[in-house]
Write a structure and sequence with these properties.
The protein is of the alpha/beta class. It is built from ten helices and twelve strands. The protein is globular. It binds NADP nicotinamide-adenine-dinucleotide phosphate. Its EC number is 1.1.1.307. One of its GO terms (molecular function) is oxidoreductase activity. InterPro entries: AKR, Aldo/ket_reductase_CS, NAD(P)_OxRdtase_dom_sf, NADP_OxRdtase_dom.
């Protein structure tokens, strides 16, 4: 049985999740392949346009819905408290499911209400003055409907997390954020541990996502010689060690791939590294953040965090 982590709701989240951002047309097959390989945790989002493919893939797999942990996310054009429940319903309709295991606020900022996911004027995003605290309070109400089993956030700074926790009544079950051996964020993740908030790593392979190609120079995180060296001892690849680095901390990780051999291989990242190897990996923290939408999303993010 693969590793599972306990959420503050009492539910369990499988440590290895499957990412579905990008390659929309490949995602239905990829999800089927992932479930066949053993994944029981799938991550999608309204804005990825992959909810239908995820739902189809889950049904095609033949594995009962209840055995799979499904996450989706509220996009920034639906932050008005009146829009939150209908936005969830749109996601559920596309997934073809009656509930999600986890519903996350994708980013801590609001854009103009409406159906346009990227509302722009003169090339700039049109912001809406909606406090993420109010959006989150509307998400809290979803818990009573049974349509979401847990709620959480993504891409919040430390100050934003503190304000959220101080002003709301349901402690987020999960914070999904960029984290990998080149952006380790130990202080920030320790803060979450104290608060009982589970951490999920997105982009666990750092700059492997083609959209991040400009940053970090020509080298790739998964080409780090130290990761390959450590892997030898466990007969694992550098990519699998990068995932195990998250799993060993009690976090979940979300590798994405449309390639069957990689989908299978990444599931083999579910193992624990010994403390000595974890210590060695601390030495390669380059503090590079690849997914920073500051500017293009109309405001600054991650201001008090590593990699800024
Ligand atoms: N909350 C957020 O704001 C947020 C932001 C980013 C991502 N996410 C979530 O996290 C997931 C993962 O992040 P990500 O997609 O940015 O990046 P990632 O999983 O770190 O990297 C994906 C890239 O790595 C390649 N790859 C996968 N396995 C590999 C392996 N074993 N060896 C070499 N290359 C490999 C994939 O190629 P192929 O597909 O061609 O095989 C793809 O190009 C997303 O899909 C999404 O679900 C969330």
């Amino acid at each position: 049985m693969s590793t599972r982590c306990k959420l503050n709701t009492g539910a369990e989240i499988p440590a290895i999740g499957f990412g579905t951002w990008q390659d929309e047309s490949a995602q239905e097959d990829a999800v089927v392949e992932a479930i066949k390989a053993g994944y029981r945790h799938i991550d999608t989002a309204r804005v990825y346009g992959t909810e239908k493919a995820v739902g189809q893939g889950v049904r095609k797999s033949g594995v009962p819905r209840k055995d799979i942990f499904i996450t989706t996310k509220l996009w920034s054009n639906k932050h008005h408290p009146d829009d939150v429940a209908p936005a969830l319903q749109q996601s559920l309709d596309d997934l073809g499911m009656d509930y999600v295991d986890l519903y996350l606020m994708h980013w801590p900022m609001a854009w103009k209400r409406g159906e346009d996911p990227f509302p722009k004027q003169n090339g700039k995003p049109v912001m809406e003055d909606i406090d993420f605290v109010d959006t989150y309070k509307a998400m809290e109400k979803l818990l009573q409907t049974g349509k979401v089993k847990a709620i959480g956030v993504s891409n919040f700074s430390k100050a934003e997390m503190e304000r959220l926790v101080q002003n709301t009544s349901v402690v987020p079950a999960v914070h999904q954020l960029e984290c990998h051996p080149w952006l380790q964020q130990h202080e920030f993740t320790a803060w979450h541990r104290v608060k009982g908030i589970h951490i999920t790593h997105y982009s666990p392979f750092g700059n492997q996502n083609a959209m991040y190609s400009g940053k970090g120079g020509a080298t790739k995180l998964i080409d780090e010689p130290l990761l390959a060296e450590i892997g030898k001892k466990y007969t694992k690849s550098a990519a699998q060690v990068a995932l195990a680095w998250g799993v060993t901390q009690g976090h979940s990780v979300l590798p994405k791939s449309k390639t069957p051999s990689r989908i299978k291989g990444n599931f083999g990242g579910d193992f624990k590294l010994i403390p000595d190897d974890m210590k060695k990996i601390q030495t390669i923290n380059r503090k590079i953040r690849f997914n920073d939408s500051s500017g293009t999303f109309g405001r600054d993010f991650f201001m008090d965090l590593e990699g800024k």
